[in-house]
Structure prediction request, 429 residues.
Amino acid sequence: MTHGDGPSNGSNGYNVESMARLAEVDAEAASIIQREIERQQDYIDLIASQNYVSQAVMDAQGTALTNKYAEGYPGRRWYNGCAHIDEIETLAIERAKQMFGAEHANVQPHSGSQANAAAYMALIKDGDRVLAMSLDHGGHLTHGHQLSFSGMQYEFAHYGVDSETERIDYDALEAQALEFRPKMILSGASAYPRIIDFERLRAIADQVDAFLMADIAHIAGLVIAGLHPSPVPYADVVTTTTHKTLRGPRGGLIVCKAEHAKAVDRCVFPGVQGGPLEHTIASKAVAFGEALTPAFRDYQQGIIDNAQALASELQELDVRLTSDGTDNHLMLVDVLGSLGVTGRDAANALEGAGIVCNKNMIPFDKRSPMVTSGIRLGTPAATTRGFGETQMRQIAQWIVHVLRNRDDENVRHEVRQEARALCRAFPLG
Ligand code: DSN
Prediction:
């Protein structure tokens, strides 16, 4: 049995019948979609924030629930005709609460960004101070970047990682909090390969009488499986996307303490959103049902085992990983320092060889975000596909071979053929 087996079997969703129906009606759109399906089938996906949902998750999303307006919440809707919509949203809410052991859940956020916008609005006021992880040390655009609503509406200061360990320096963070006196501390990251100490962050937040918010978009699946400490006992509000390690449809989710329930609900709707996407909420309910099964825990363990295998093989090949490795589903590879290639050029060369990842800044990067010194690699999608440690070690070898021979088109071509063959041995769906 692979980690992709069971109720969450990775699928490309593309049940031949529905694609054939679509092609009859709109051949042009169907053909584009078909080519994307084939791309997903034939490329190794190491983008740490991506995954392949099950056929059941895909099926629920493609339903008549997309036809229904349902502004408001179960039992309190603006529109009539919401009886079944209420049932499906309640199912998603109850499963979300169960997954995280949370007092309250709001399943309506269309995305992680909107979940974050609502969470900020629920806890703090415009102009209030927030201390969050900096984007170039692994944070996220919505954690205070000047071009994001977050950086425009609130006054952010940013913490980073220690220059030696490349891990969060909680003592420095505490000193910064005592100096900056934020109204809220925001934890969570998009490119941080180590465990986050939410208990310590709560203690720091308490010292300055600040709220603690946790954005666990990347690690939600690991948290649900008990393989990463949960922020839920410590944070006032926890946000996540539903499509990364959680392996649901593209969307957002907020869980929080009961005392913040009303504010969170009011800030999602009507605060930042209008009518909820009930077809997506139905799909979230199905994904949350999958996340409550023992197979999901096995899958999350597989993600970590595969990340360890990929990381250790890269290190055996003399490639430097920031912080010297990983505890979770992702790693940051210093390709400029180890292989003399920028993150941008590395990611492009790898795509040419059938391996898709993203360029990423590494801590204290001297290159711009569009160039970068690093790439970010993650194992959630590869694990869903059924790859195990043998495949991950093979992929590490291909990565290094391609990057060491990046000017050699033959090498790229050969690896492309081998990567395609591997994908076909582990088909999606
Ligand atoms: N920053 C995206 C990522 O981690 O890929 C998610 O918003």
User: Anything to note?
Assistant: Residues 1-11 have pLDDT under 50 and may be disordered. The longest strand covers residues 129-133. The chain has two domains: 64-291, 301-425.
